[in-house]
Amino acid sequence: MDTKYFPECESAFAKAGNILRESGIVAFPTDTVYGLGAVYTDRDAVRKIFEAKGRDEKKPLSILVSDIMQVGRVAGDISNDALKLMVAFWPGALTLIMEKNETVPDEVSAGGNTVGVRMPESECARMIIAYAGSPLAAPSANLSGKRSSVTAEDVREDLDGRIDMVIDGGECSIGISSTVLDLTGEEPKILREGVITAEMIKEVLGR
After folding, report:
1. Contacts by 77-80, CB closer than 8 A, 24 or more apart
2. Angle at 182 between CA 180 and CA 183, to 5 degrees
3. Which H/E stretch holds residue 17?
4. Rounded distance, CA 199 to CA 108, Å?
5. How far is C-alpha 92 from the chain's CA centre?
6. pLDDT tens profile 145-200
């Protein structure tokens, strides 16, 4: 596969959208680390992500959205806690684990009933999602087991020849993965802490 590289610009977003709608996979910068995206309902494209990364198919993929309205396309019941956290921290570095709805294929959720959803602060990422016309299944753009990519050159080292396109938006502003918060239990539970801390979450939820 001949991986194409483009600087971050409107024409690149349009090219990325076309590739994604045609079952391709595209790497792009987010606020945290570079993501590797596929249209979440496209099972063939999602499988390409696992193949490119060498990722265990038993590990679920998170989904990126470009606006809060898209959350209803992938999540089932959206709780008051979820809405409070979205208002407080989105767009930003917080992934919320919620019950998935019927549109999310088992390839994305690894056969489970939940899905991780985030709206990235990166305008580049949100533009690509918008041009694709769909939320994207989007894990980090690196080989499984290696450190997350924070530049397009990092992506090139791991995934050149394995994916369709890379958009070079420079170095990611945060450079570490998002905080992951599970909202499916009786009480919210942090599965991974990033720049959004437990104290910040408690302040918003009041507990």
Report:
1. 79/183
2. 135
3. helix 10-21
4. 30
5. 12
6. 999 999 999 999 999 999 999 999 999 999 999 999 999 999 999 999 999 999 99
- To the question of domain 4-205 being in CATH 3.90.870.10, the answer is yes
3-class secondary structure, 10: helix
DSSP 196: S
Report yes or no: 63 and 71 within 8 Å, Cβ to Cβ: no
Give the predicted TM-score (pTM) of the model.
0.96
CA distances from 23 to 18, 43, 48, 125, 130 (A): 9, 9, 9, 18, 16
Please, where are the H alpha helices in 28-177? Answer: 43-53, 71-74, 80-89, 106-109, 123-132, 152-159
Q: Are 63 and 40 in contact (CB under 8 A)?
A: yes
Residues sharing a CB contact under 8 Å with residue 185, sequence separation 6 or more, in sequence order: none
* Residue labelled with tokens 């299944």: 137
For the stretch 97-112, pLDDT in tens is 999 999 999 999 999 9
